[in-house]
Amino acid sequence: MDLPFPCHTNRILCLTFFSGRPLGLPAAPPRSPRSSPRRRSLHRGPDRIAPPLLGEAAYVKPSVGLQLLREEILGAAAFDDAFRTYIARWAYKHPTPSDFFRSMEDVSGRRLDWFWRQWFQENARFDQGIDTLASAQRGDTNVVSAQYSNLERGVLPIRARFTFSDGTTQEYRYPAEVWSTNSRRYLRRYR
After folding, report:
1. E strand segments, the chain
2. Nearest Cα to 12, choosing from 86, 74, 63?
3. What digits encode the pLDDT tens for the residues 46-73?
């Protein structure tokens, strides 16, 4: 579990040093590694991972997971605070992945079992979209209903940007917990 920490920390340091864009890296965050039947849980010994996939499984996927946790799920301040606390608690000891998971949940105050399970213990796929948009006039107010869908097993926060006829945009962010009662559909109404 310690292998992705240097990758993740180096990315944050580069972002800080090079004024928001790491040298040699694309401006957008890297996409998660694509799933395939050959890729398994990260909780496997390196001798049990096919050599061509070892670098991706040991460095890339966990580092992308930490980046996702920091930038999309917890936020930079909460993640950094929890990460510093984890380092202080476990310096010069032999932590397990479970110790990292518990420390991050404890300090952030968020339940993250769904994230640990789908990103580190399983190999869930992620596919979210908007199924339907419907507009209805109610008095003087236009009400838009958006039905978000989750087509695969993995759940992530929802980020939606609506562009209006006058060219303005509005962004909405919903935590991954919106999928807790129905993991396939999430209906939201906007006024």
Report:
1. 128-138, 141-150, 158-163, 169-174, 185-190
2. 63
3. 677 777 777 777 778 888 889 899 989 9
User: Any idea of the CA torsion for 35, 69, 55, 123, to the nearest 10 degrees?
Assistant: -30
Half-sphere exposure of residue 184, counting CA atoms within 13 Å on the CB side?
A: 0
Give the pair of three-digit tokens for residue 99: 């110790």
Rounded-to-integer distance, Cα 140 and Cα 134, Å: 17
19 token code pair? 């004024």
**168-179 residue pLDDT tens:** 999 999 999 899
Q: What is the dihedral of CA 97, 100, 104, 105, to 10 degrees?
A: 60
Instruction: Say whether pTM exceeds 0.90.
Output: no
